[in-house]
Amino acid sequence: MNIINTSAELLTAFEDNTFDLKRWEAYMDAYVPGAKELCLQDMRDCISAGYSWESAFQPVLDAVVCDAKKREEAVRSFVAVTEGLEKKIRDRFGKELDADVILYLGLCNGAGWVTEVNGRTTVLLGIEKIMELDFCDIDAMNGLIVHELGHVYQAQYGVFRITTETPGERFLWQLFTEGIAMVFEQEIIGDPEYFHQDKDGWKDWCDENAARIRDSFSSDLKSMTRENQRYFGDWVRFDGHGDTGYYLGARFVRFLLQTDDLNSLISYDISEVKAGFSDFIHS
Question: Where are the chain's structural domains?
Answer without folding.
Answer: 2-157, 167-281
